Structure to design on (291 residues):
């Protein structure tokens, strides 16, 4: 049995006038290998950004430490002057070493520096949304976020940041954060097989807060890939589209930012909005993590 859902829907970030399409675009794959240095094909990278917006993606996920500096500079070159409805969501809390290392810096001085670097490279006076990144791809570390978050709140009061989100955080850290600031989104690792945040997603949905999964395609075992391919064949889509469509079906507060440096793959990703999954197919996919 299939219930038709409008996956090409909007989501308004809580306490804001920012209304986002649920399918956005992530820029992490635009810089060179290992997210360092310039893109292998600069003209292509600019074309991908312009095509994403042309296809209706009105929120772009980025970070000054992608490159570093590269993703933001590409966004500015490709999309400035920005459309009125375009929302650029960036992250702070990490600096890149010359050797490509990812070095955490949530000190007050570090965060102020990073916010100002984002303002400069994006060519704006105020950042739409800034996510405070605390943990890494493996998960949160559960340290207190009061000090760095209060720094962002100060910068918000100064007019340098409009809204604040979180990245790589636990439920406990979110609990602490909402006593300090209005949190509009949480960005954590989540996909068909990495389901650690199921309870958090449901809670955020009730509170009207966006959940933005990174690594949305995950890594599948041969059996999991087979199940995914079977469903894809049933609905006339690719396995990647089914994995992304599952996220859109999972909860109305999930915003997808699958990244790519290919216009062909960009069309494939955004085509996930047109993939309808039956209740039986959703049940099959819901159980895939156990396989």
């Amino acid at each position: 049995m299939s219930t038709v859902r409008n996956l090409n829907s909007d989501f308004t970030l809580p306490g804001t006038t920012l209304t986002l399409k649920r399918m956005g675009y992530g820029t992490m794959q635009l810089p060179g290998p290992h997210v360092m240095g310039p893109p292998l094909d600069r003209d292509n990278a600019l074309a991908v950004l312009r095509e994403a917006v042309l296809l209706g993606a009105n929120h772009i996920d980025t970070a000054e430490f992608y490159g570093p500096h590269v993703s933001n500079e590409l966004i500015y070159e490709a999309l400035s002057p920005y459309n009125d409805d375009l929302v650029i969501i960036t992250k702070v809390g990490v600096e890149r070493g010359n050797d490509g290392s990812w070095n955490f810096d949530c000190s007050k001085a570090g965060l102020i520096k990073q916010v100002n670097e984002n303002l400069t490279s994006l060519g704006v006076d105020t950042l739409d949304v800034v996510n405070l990144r605390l943990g890494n791809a493996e998960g949160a570390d559960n340290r207190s976020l009061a000090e760095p978050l209060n720094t962002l709140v100060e910068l918000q009061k100064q007019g340098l940041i409009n809204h604040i989100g979180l990245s790589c955080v636990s439920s406990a850290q979110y609990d602490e954060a909402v006593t300090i600031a209005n949190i509009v989104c949480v960005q954590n690792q989540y996909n068909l097989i990495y389901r650690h945040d199921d309870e958090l997603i449901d809670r955020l949905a009730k509170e009207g807060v966006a959940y933005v999964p990174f690594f949305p395609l995950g890594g599948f075992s041969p059996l999991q890939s087979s199940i995914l391919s079977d469903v894809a064949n049933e609905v006339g889509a690719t396995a990647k589209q089914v994995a992304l469509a599952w996220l859109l079906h999972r909860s109305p507060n999930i915003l997808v930012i699958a990244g790519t440096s290919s216009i062909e793959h960009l069309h494939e990703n955004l085509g996930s909005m047109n993939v309808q999954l039956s209740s039986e197919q959703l049940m099959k996919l819901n159980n895939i993590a156990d396989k």
